[in-house]
Amino acid sequence: MRKLMFYCQHILGMGHLVRSMEIVRGLIPEFQVCFINGGEVIQEFPFPDGVEVINLPAIKTDSEFQSLQVVDTSFTLPEVQEIRKNKLLEIFNQFQPDIFMIELFPFGRGKFKFELIPLLEQAKASKKPVKVVSSLRDIVVTKSNRVDYEEKVCKLMNKYFDLLLIHGDPKFYPLAETFTRLADIKCQISYTGFVVQKPPIKPILAPEEQAIIQSDHPLILVSVGGGRFGHELIDCVIASAPILAQKIPHHIQIFTGPFIPPEKLHNWQNLTANHENISVSRYTTNLLSYMQKADLSISMSGYNTTLNIMTTGVKAMILPFTGNDDQEQQMRAEKLEKLGVVKMIQPQELNSEIFAAEIINYLKKDHNMINFDFNGVENTTSLLKKLIPQPQVV
Q1: Does residue 309 contact residue 316 with C-beta atoms inside 8 Å?
Q2: What's the burial of 270, exposed, middle or buried (CB within 10 Å: 0-12/13-18/19+)?
Q3: What pLDDT does 21 receive?
Q4: 83 vs 67, which has greater pLDDT?
Q5: Is 139 within the bounds of a domain?
Q6: pLDDT above 60 for 393
Q7: Dihedral in degrees, nearest 10, Cα atoms 181, 306, 355, 347
Q8: CATH number of the domain enclosing 119
Q9: Which of 196, 280, 304, 393 is 20 to 30 A off residue 256, Cα-Cα?
Q10: pLDDT in tens, 95-144
């Protein structure tokens, strides 16, 4: 069987991990997969059977992406970097992949060159031929030093990579709109379509989840991804809940995300304890089931959440994350709003009276459902199979 080593480093949210795992889920029947997770471990996160998961000593970042931080503070950052670099080289030697696939790099994760460049050099020098693949979402974060940044990306792509997979539909956002030198990349470039999560046919629901999802009562779903940002959105929803309780029949279910600071979660739960129309929970593995049930989704506008909105057809209000002058979510949200798929939340609307009115008004309006290419998982698998038509014989 073909062997594929997949490196994923999530540092702030969990979107990169979610998208990567959906790709891996599609690869498992065709590939023996070794998945390297460099980010903080989410205990409840469901990994599919048949994939070997190796968790490196975890590294995360601050909310402005200015510095790397170790999760286990009994080690210094330099110590963890050295441990990770050596561990990755050891895994590569033992696993001997036919394909080495890296999520986001070299378009992002430049701070992880300390371990990725030695690994890419090892792949290049391997006696067994190894194809190197970059796995990239549809929109690249615009850099202030764009000329230098794009030059470095092109050099790394042309030196080390055999294939660039763009997990998007060019009819929605061609990569050239956010990376101007795409034509200077010499390896094969393929759009895969969007990588989307597929809900389980029979989700395993806790009794309280079953009560909400199978209820006839209208549902407003609120989620903020991993939970390291978006707190102002949850604050506003909670403040709006008493107003909404007097205006419309509904239940509000909030998911704060697995990385939420415990004191934040407890504070929100205490604030809502006496309100019958709102519940605050940390995390669910059944978010898609909630979204399918919901009359309205209120969320951030990351890749996975907006794809969930597009594929379930739920009416949605989305707030872009703009920390570190990151325009990716803003660009996605603006385009979806122009297409009539969502309503983009403006920062000045995060006021309880205004926000409650916006929710009520938006629930009365129609919204569009647009079919883009959502076959990213299947197309990725097909392209990788073509890259290695037959398992390599050592």
Answers
A1: yes
A2: exposed
A3: 96
A4: 83
A5: yes
A6: no
A7: -20
A8: 3.40.50.2000
A9: 196
A10: 999 999 999 999 999 999 999 999 999 999 999 999 999 999 999 987 77
pLDDT tens for residues 1-32? 999 999 999 998 899 999 999 999 999 999 99
Q: Nearest 5°: phi and psi at 244?
A: -65, -35
Q: Are residues 60 and 188 in the same domain?
A: yes
Residues with Cβ within 8 Å of residue 58, at least 6 apart in sequence: 38, 39, 40, 41, 70, 71, 72
Q: In this structure, are residues 90 and 118 in contact, taking their beta carbons and an 8 Å threshold?
A: no
Partners of residue 103 on adjacent β-strands: 135
Do residues 304 and 13 lie in contact, with contact meaning Cβ atoms separated by under 8 Å?
A: no
Q: Taking 60 as the threshold, does the pLDDT of residue 75 lie above it?
A: yes
| Nearest of 363, 1, 15, 22 to residue 200 by alpha carbon | 22
| Same structural domain, 224 and 124 | no
Q: State how far the Cα of 339 lies from the Cα of 377, in Å rounded to an integer.
A: 24
Q: Which domain holds residue 126?
A: 2-196+374-387
Q: How many domains does the chain have?
A: 2
Helix (H, G, I), strand (E, B) or coil at 377: helix
Q: Mean per-residue pLDDT for 48-66?
A: 88
Provide Rg for the chain, Cα atoms: 21
13 with 60, same domain?
yes
Spell out the long-range contacts of 174-178 with Cβ–Cβ below 8 A and sequence spacing 24 or more.
175/136, 175/138, 175/139, 175/140, 177/139, 178/139, 178/140, 178/141, 178/142, 178/328, 178/331
pLDDT in tens, 162-210: 999 999 999 999 999 999 999 999 999 999 999 999 877 788 888 989 9
Q: Taking a C-beta distance cutoff of 8 angstroms, is the pair 123, 134 a contact?
A: no
